[in-house]
């Protein structure tokens, strides 16, 4: 299975595309990075500026196109500090959903730290030792301790290079007084967190993130050790970092961009990152740092594989592109696929047994089946009105293999699987063509009954038997238990199908 992880960070937006072998192993197919700087000015104004806003949307859209070209089955997306704190951060995420078709997960600093550690311990052999992992981002710095088996301490500090840049207010060389105040600010903010890490205990410090790796590479260059393609497991002395920090703070942004190992994209705030890193290492009481090229996005992949290990096999077994696409979408929004396949079995039994009455064929039957898998993905967003959230997500999830009309009907089937059935007063329903409305009412009517027959999620109703008569249809539900709630719910939602077939429907225990 091919997976992509997009990390919408405060400084950069990254994407990694991998091919998963199992829950513990994957091969990296490609990596992309764009220094969008969503957090530029955010920590002073609380607003993502228009340039960064549009650049971020364009970058994520390009990443999705690349993922599609690689045949990616699933895209995991997380957003961090800048979008958490900006007043228009939610607007940014909503735009990602509507224009790009992704639904990013807004993760906390602690969650971010845990995912980073998950990636680091796969990249560096801890050999029974304990590590303190530091990750300096644009808006926050994460500190996490643990060993090869577990994380036992996890904190996020409001110390990031762009946040510090907003605090300083300029990119020019720093005066001695500004450096003194900056060091004092870092120590005051980080002292308690690093103290907690010291209480837990660790044998060495590992540094990840672009800022730390750039500083490490610059030190390696200065020592005559050219930066390798990967800096993973390289060690850099604190003394070398102190010397580099002093040098960078005395330079202009243009001069910093010419230092070997430092890119021009980082020249605006990398000196602040250097001061930050030096103070953190001093607080930790260590004389060196071990570099790691692991990152949040690798952690996102590993976490996904761990949580979806059993479901991955089911996804891969999709009979065709449409089924696989729906299973992947259900997986993305953490749907219990087993429950949905049970609902699908009941819905298809009703469809097949009433075929002589409704006269529909294979195409409609498949549409009903696929709708059963994804009708409640909106629960991932919010319980209230989740049927409407489901429709929205289906419309914007770029389901593969389906025509635009099929996606349209799938979204409406999700919308009408509960609450009120299709009505002409509903604007979106009214926009459908006559044939589409007819198909929707029939399939929604069947879906509503099937969903009702699994009201308690116990899968008590194993099969149904439909007995048509001239004026009515009796649906007998067979169960080894007494599914009173299921019978009641299915009867309550039987009106839509009854109106379509012009018959009274009775649901009873078989």
Note down, in words, how this protein is organized.
The protein has 510 residues and is an alpha/beta fold. The protein folds into 3 domains: 2-106, 2-Layer Sandwich (Nucleotidyltransferase, domain 5), CATH 3.30.420; 109-299, Nucleotidyltransferase, domain 5; 325-509, Hypothetical protein af1432. The protein has 23 helices and 14 strands. The strands form 3 sheets. The protein has a 6-stranded mixed β-sheet, sandwiched between helices. The relative contact order is 0.09. The mean pLDDT is 88.
Summarize the structure.
This protein has 510 residues and is of the alpha/beta class. Helices cover 51% and strands 17% of the residues.
Strands, helices and their partners?
Blueprint: E1 2-8, E2 13-22, E3 25-34, H1 42-45, H2 50-69, E4 74-79, H3 81-85, H4 89-100, E5 105-106, H5 109-123, E6 131-136, E7 141-146, E8 151-157, H6 161-168, H7 176-200, E9 204-208, H8 210-222, E10 235-237, H9 238-249, H10 253-256, H11 270-284, E11 288-291, H12 296-307, H13 309-316, H14 321-332, H15 337-353, H16 355-358, H17 362-374, H18 386-395, H19 404-415, H20 427-430, H21 434-452, E12 461-468, E13 472-479, H22 484-492, H23 495-501, E14 504-509
Parallel strand pairs: 1-4, 4-5, 6-9, 9-11, 13-14
Antiparallel strand pairs: 1-2, 2-3, 6-7, 7-8, 10-11, 12-13
Helix pairs in contact: 2-4, 5-12, 7-11, 8-11, 9-11, 13-14, 14-17, 15-17, 15-21, 17-19, 17-21, 18-19, 19-21, 21-22, 21-23
């Amino acid at each position: 299975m091919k997976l992509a992880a997009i990390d919408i960070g405060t400084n950069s937006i990254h994407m990694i595309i991998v091919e998963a072998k199992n829950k513990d192993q994957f091969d990296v197919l490609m990596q992309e990075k764009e220094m969008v700087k969503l957090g530029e000015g955010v920590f002073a104004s609380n607003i993502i500026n228009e340039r960064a806003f549009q650049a971020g949307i364009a970058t994520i859209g390009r990443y999705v196109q690349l993922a599609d070209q690689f045949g990616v089955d699933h895209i995991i997306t997380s957003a961090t500090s800048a979008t958490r704190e900006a007043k228009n951060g939610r607007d940014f995420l909503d735009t990602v959903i509507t224009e790009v078709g992704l639904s990013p997960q807004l993760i906390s600093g602690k969650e971010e730290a845990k995912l980073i550690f998950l990636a680091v311990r796969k990249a560096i052999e801890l050999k029974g030792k304990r590590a303190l992992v530091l990750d300096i981002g644009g808006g926050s710095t994460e500190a996490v301790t643990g060993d090869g088996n577990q994380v036992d301490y996890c904190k996020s500090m409001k110390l990031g290079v762009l946040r510090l840049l907003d605090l300083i207010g300029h990119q020019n060389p720093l005066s001695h007084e500004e450096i003194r105040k900056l060091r004092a600010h870092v120590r005051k903010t980080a002292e308690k967190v690093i103290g907690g890490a010291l209480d837990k205990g660790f044998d060495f410090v590992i540094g990840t993130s672009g800022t730390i790796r750039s500083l490490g590479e610059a030190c390696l260059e200065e020592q005559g050790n050219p930066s390798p393609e990967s800096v993973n497991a390289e060690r850099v002395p604190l003394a070398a970092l102190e010397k580099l920090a002093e040098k960078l703070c005395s330079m202009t942004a243009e001069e910093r961009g010419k230092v070997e190992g430092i890119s021009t994209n980082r020249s605006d705030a990398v000196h602040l990152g250097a001061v930050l890193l030096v103070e953190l290492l001093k607080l930790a009481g260590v004389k060196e740092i071990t570099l790691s090229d692991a990152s949040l996005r690798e952690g996102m992949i590993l976490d996904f594989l761990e949580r979806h290990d059993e479901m991955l096999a089911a996804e891969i077994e999709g009979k065709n592109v449409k089924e696989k696409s729906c299973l992947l979408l259900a997986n993305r929004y953490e749907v219990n696929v087993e429950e949905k396949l049970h609902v699908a079995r009941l819905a298809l039994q009703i469809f097949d047994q009433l075929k002589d009455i409704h006269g529909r064929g294979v195409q409609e039957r498949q549409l009903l089946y696929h709708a059963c898998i994804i009708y409640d993905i909106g629960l991932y967003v919010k319980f209230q009105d989740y049927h409407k959230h489901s429709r929205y997500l289906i419309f914007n999830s770029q389901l593969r293999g389906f025509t635009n009309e099929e996606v349209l009907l799938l979204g409406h089937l999700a919308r009408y699987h509960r609450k009120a059935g299709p009505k002409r007063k509903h604007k979106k329903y009214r926009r459908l063509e006559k044939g589409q409305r007819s198909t929707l009412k029939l399939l929604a009517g069947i879906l509503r009954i099937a969903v009702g027959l699994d009201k308690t999620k116990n899968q008590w109703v194993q099969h149904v038997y439909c007995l048509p008569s001239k004026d009515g249809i009796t649906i007998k539900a067979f169960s080894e238990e007494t599914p009173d709630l299921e019978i009641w719910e299915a009867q309550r939602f039987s009106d839509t199908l009854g109106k379509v077939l012009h018959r009274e429907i009775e649901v009873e225990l078989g």
